Amino acid sequence: MDPSSSDAARLLRAFAVRVLTLALVVGIAGDTLLTPLLALAGLGLLLASAGTAAEGRQDSFQEVFQQPPHWNP
């Protein structure tokens, strides 16, 4: 797996946790407009990190299961 994709996924997850925590704090404070916006942003970052991680796994899957150059089915 490409280390840059796992680093990017880890960074996106860290940002997502921070944004979701901020959404919780803002929700407790009572701001009804900013809370769902921050929650959606945090969920979007979590989904983006999952997509980045899946892309890295797909790249490593293709590296492992490549056909040898001399093999012609």
**Which percent bin holds the helix content?**
over 70%
Report the uncertain regions.
none
Order of helices and strands: HH
Average pLDDT, rounded to a whole number, is 81
Assign an overall shape. rod-shaped
How many strands, what sense, and barrel or not for the largest sheet? none
Helical region count? 2
Helix-strand makeup class: mainly alpha
Record field, number of beta strands: 0
What is the first-to-last residue Cα distance? 28 Å
Compact description:
By secondary structure, the protein is mainly α.
Mind explaining what this structure looks like?
The chain is an all-alpha fold and 73 residues long. It has a domain at 15-63. The protein is built from 2 helices and no strands. It has helices at residues 3-29, 34-64. Helix 1 (3-29) runs antiparallel to helix 2. The longest helix is centred in the last third of the chain and has 31 residues, at 34-64. The mean pLDDT is 81.
